[in-house]
Write a structure and sequence with these properties.
single chain, alpha+beta, TIM Barrel, Immunoglobulin-like, 15-stranded mixed beta sheet, three-stranded antiparallel beta sheet, 12 helices, flat, binds zinc ion
Length: 387
């Protein structure tokens, strides 16, 4: 293997030899500028062409269409420097493209923008003045260039629980939501006025003053949350955020008619959070009529959102059943069941008292009889899908 150092040594020797040889051959036809360049110690040469930047192929995630629905991959909870994230909005576009996503929403905090504080100091509850569309506007041209759907969004960030934090996506303008900052219910109403979708974020989060989950404070769907839900101002809940799973949300979605959402809530770089070995970034799969913002929005309101995180699937029963039918073909032959996984989503199949691993793009066969349980695909709290 040639190291970069070896190459440079080699190139330097060749260069030294080449100069006298070309003069000796009397190449008078050599363009004057080039000849001058070879003699000029200030000449700059780019090795870009010779080596080419090693082109990285974006991750390809295969999931067949579910009937008339395309299965889009998205992350709808992302931070940038325009709140307390570590990167520029345009970097989020590149990460998402490399991760194989179709759609993202950048959701910077309205109430917490430490880099906007006076003197540039970190300060909680910094001024909410200024244009809250700036992250979206900064990322939009690159998203268009990269063919990534970018949804305008924001995070409503209250320091007490209840109510906690909410994401508002499919907005037309974030500023009217920020203008109502003194009253969180008015903020949610302002989202609804624009036809936006509201998700209750990381519902297990409790204000640090209350002791946190570690101190045994249980998660609950409070009367405050029920109040906004009844008004039609709350539409979804995160069942998985970053590395945290909230199992109770599975039943809450079914009982309270909400859509489950899975997000990364990423603040650092994708590389810093999920590592160079590409531990799969959590995502929401969207069963959408086509790859447009309008179709993604329709899917969110129609509960056609399915979470995928840590090799687990979470969703409302109807949507999960549709996805399974699209991904896995089940055939019976002479008392044997044969499963073929056409997708990149892994399945753990329990049948006849045994467990079988149905890997991405893999297949498995076993004796027919009884129900078939997909142990890592959930349609409610601790409720795996049965087929
Ligand atoms: Zn939050
Ligand atoms: Zn967040």
């Amino acid at each position: 293997m040639t190291t970069r150092r070896d190459f440079l040594k080699c190139a330097a020797l060749l260069g030294a030899a080449a100069v006298p040889v070309s003069y000796a051959a009397g190449q008078e036809t050599k363009p004057a500028a080039k000849a001058a360049a070879a003699d000029n110690p200030l000449f700059q040469e780019s090795y870009k062409k010779r080596f080419g930047a090693e082109k990285t192929e974006p991750r390809k995630i295969t999931i067949p269409d579910a009937g008339k629905w395309k299965v889009l991959k998205g992350d709808f909870h992302i931070h940038t420097l325009f709140s307390d994230g570590h990167v520029m909005p345009v970097d989020r576009v590149h990460e998402a493209v490399q991760n194989g996503l179709d759609v993202i929403s950048i959701t910077d905090h309205i109430e917490y923008r430490p880099y906007f504080s006076e003197g540039g100091r970190w300060k909680l509850d910094s001024s909410v003045s200024g244009d809250h569309n700036i992250a979206y506007n900064t990322a939009k041209p690159e998203a268009e260039k990269q063919n990534l759907l970018l949804i305008r969004g924001t995070e409503i960030t209250k320091r007490q629980m209840p109510p906690g934090h909410f994401n508002a996506i499919f907005l037309k303008d974030v500023n009217p939501v920020a203008d109502a900052v003194d009253d969180w219910k008015k903020m949610l109403a302002a989202v609804s006025e624009q036809g936006g979708f509201v998700t209750w974020n990381h519902p297990g989060w409790v204000a640090p003053a209350s002791g946190g989950l570690e101190k045994g404070v249980p998660m609950s769907f409070t009367s405050e949350h029920e109040d906004v839900r009844k008004k039609g101002h709350l539409h979804g809940i995160e069942i998985f955020n970053g590395f945290n799973h909230y199992p109770a949300v599975g039943d809450w979605c079914n009982e309270l008619d909400l859509s489950p959402v899975v997000t990364s809530d990423i603040h650092v770089t994708e590389l810093a959070m999920y590592g160079i070995q590409n531990l799969r970034r959590p995502m929401t799969l969207i069963l959408a009529e086509d790859r447009t913002e309008e179709a993604v929005r329709d899917a969110f309101f129609a509960h056609r959102t399915i979470g995928w995180a840590m090799d687990m699937i979470f969703g409302r029963p109807e949507a999960v059943e549709k996805l399974f039918a699209a991904c896995v073909s089940v055939t019976k032959n002479n008392g044997t069941v044969h499963l073929v996984n056409k997708s990149d989503i892994p399945c753990r199949i329990q049948a006849d008292g045994a467990e079988y691993e149905l890997k991405p793009q893999g297949s498995v066969s076993f004796k027919a009889g009884g129900t078939l349980t997909v142990a890592n695909w959930f349609i409610g709290t601790n409720k795996p899908l049965t087929v």
